[in-house]
UniProtKB/TrEMBL annotation:
Annotated GO CC locations: membrane
Protein name: histidine kinase
Annotated ranges, domain Signal transduction histidine kinase subgroup 3 dimerisation and phosphoacceptor: 187-255
Organism, as annotated: Kibdelosporangium aridum
PANTHER family membership: NITRATE/NITRITE SENSOR PROTEIN NARX-RELATED, NITRATE_NITRITE SENSOR PROTEIN NARQ
Length: 390
């Protein structure tokens, strides 16, 4: 009784997930199949044979309407079919003109679903049961000529459907793996965006706050003008962090691609460097590069290289007196370099260790590569990016 209730619930769930057009189409096909099964039953002269043909034809139809198959249901259907095939020749009047066409089609479709749905070991023995049940169906007929040819055709057809089910199983697996890879790539992109959007502005806030505390603790209270300037920088960095978060949330909530304004390398580098909370930044860009139209991926990568490099200066460098950002065209590629003359220090700021990793991934996704290391008198980060669309 419990299994019956679960089967009915599975059928209802199956219909709930269909659109009204699919429901109407499914209902019409089911009614047509049931009508054929009943017609096949009426064509049998004896009542026992007619009842067996109808029951064996309706059971696969009921199973096909379930959203999730059960191994017990499939094995039960195959067992009932084989049992009726065994007893058919012993009936007073065996079937003489049909062995169950709809039943054969139902068993064939069940084979495909079993191969797709179940694990290999369970699918193997269930497929064997269904294969055997379908193959021996012609043995129900009484004195039918050349029955061996009919069995050979059924064997070939069932073998083809097994291969079809294996192909569809492999296709579903590949699609699932591809979907997981896409989700992983998307997660990495979100992680990089969160780091780039938030870390830069929050680091500026922390650096400015530490500067105020350091100045005050040293007994050199800043003038009202200097204090107002520091607080204004903190306020501006906080506002920009909120704007960046809103922009990212908007992109995440909206499936349509955002429309980006036309940007040049000069404007991108200037926007990344203008809010730096450390020493003044010297920007040097080749005149022919400043206004040249570059690939969108290159501009995005260049912006993040400058922004992340400046953020790392606040986090990991001390005694910095000079910061330089340069961009040059080196034989068909764009070299963006950020250098400073500081020494390595933690500055008391937290670091997750993912900045350069994410930056390297972003640069590589744009078709370039990233180099970072000591220059002997400071630190340099260089990104080599494509300057033209491939």
């Amino acid at each position: 009784m419990v299994n019956t209730c679960r089967s009915v619930a599975a059928m209802l769930g199956f219909f709930d997930r269909l659109s009204w057009v699919q429901r109407v189409t499914t209902a019409v096909l089911v009614m047509a199949a049931v009508a054929v099964v009943i017609f096949e039953g009426l064509s049998v002269d004896a009542v026992p044979g007619a009842i067996g043909i109808v029951i064996c034809g309706l059971l696969p139809l009921a199973a096909l309407l379930m959203s999730t198959l059960s191994a017990w249901v499939v094995s039960g259907i195959a067992a009932v079919s084989i049992a009726f095939t065994i007893i058919s020749p012993r009936l007073p009047v065996p079937p003489d003109n049909t062995f169950g066409t709809i039943e054969l089609l139902g068993l064939a479709i069940l084979v495909v679903r079993v191969v797709i749905q179940f694990r290999p070991l369970r699918a193997a023995w269930l497929t064997t049961l269904l294969f055997g049940a379908a193959t021996v169906l012609p043995l129900r007929l009484d004195n039918y000529d050349r029955i061996e040819y009919m069995i050979a055709v059924i064997v070939a057809g069932m073998a083809f459907l097994v291969l079809l089910g294996m192909y569809m199983r492999l296709y579903d697996r590949r699609r699932s793996v591809g979907f997981e890879l896409e989700r992983q790539t998307q997660r990495l992109e979100y992680a990089r965006d969160l780091h780039d959007f938030v870390a830069h502005h929050v680091t500026a806030i922390v650096a400015q706050a530490k500067a105020v505390r350091f100045t005050t603790a040293a007994g050199m209270a800043p003038s009202p003008e200097a204090l107002d300037d520091m607080l204004a920088r903190i306020e501006k960095a906080g506002s920009e962090a909120l704007v960046s978060m809103r922009s990212m949330i908007t992109v995440l909530r909206d499936d349509s691609a955002p429309v980006r304004p036309h940007r040049t390398l000069g404007s991108v580098v200037a926007a990344a460097a203008e809010n730096f909370a450390g020493p003044p930044v010297t920007v040097s860009i080749d005149s022919d590069l400043a206004a040249r139209e570059l690939p969108q991926e290159t501009l995005d990568a260049a912006k993040h290289v400058v922004q992340e490099s400046l953020t790392n200066i606040l986090r990991h460098a001390a005694e910095v007196t000079r910061v330089e950002v340069s961009a040059v065209d080196s034989g068909g590629s764009l070299d963006v370099t950020v250098t400073n003359d500081g020494i390595a220090a933690s500055n008391g700021l937290p670091s997750g260790g993912f900045g350069l990793v994410g930056l390297a991934e972003r640069v590589e996704s744009a078709g370039g590569h990233l180099n970072a290391g000591s220059t002997g008198a400071g630190w340099a980060v260089t990104a080599v990016l494509p300057s033209s669309k491939s």
